[in-house]
Amino acid sequence: MQSLNRPLARVGYLSIVAGSIVLMVGLVLSPTRNLRAEVAPTDQLEAVAAWNQIVTVLDHPRCLNCHQAVTPLQGDSRRVHIPLVVRGPDNHGVGAMRCGNCHNAMGNNETSGTPGAGTPGLWQLAPISMLWQGLSSKQLCEMLKDRSGNGNRDGAALIEHMDHEPLVQWDGIPVVTGSQ
Fold it and tell me: Which sequence ranges are marked TM in the entry (predicted)?
């Protein structure tokens, strides 16, 4: 197994793992529980294992750094963001301390090491409705399924978000896969 630090490799991996969200949701949180009887135990174990991998990624410091209530954090140590930035009404900071001032479409600034992503104005804190630090696995699953707080995304749209959202691709989370 090899650790990958490349966002695109991670995104491909997340597509495979995120594809199991729908099955996992049906197995674990189905209100009728009738689906359990129709799914082979092997499929259930694979779905639970895939969901556990998703939780591991979502609980990684680089995800949690921007899924904060007031101010972003930095790095794997989750230190306070320097310079100090706060959320602001549009999730992009306030006054002269706006996320896009440093994090912009230029990509990774080699001099400062500041990452950027996508179009100008894209870099921001996650919406308040998407704060998941401290949630249990079940609570996280329920939150992700709640379309009123997840950007009105169904399972397919969540997978699309993980595949193509520039901020998701720029987080630099190392992924361990068995394929390389």
Answer: 12-29
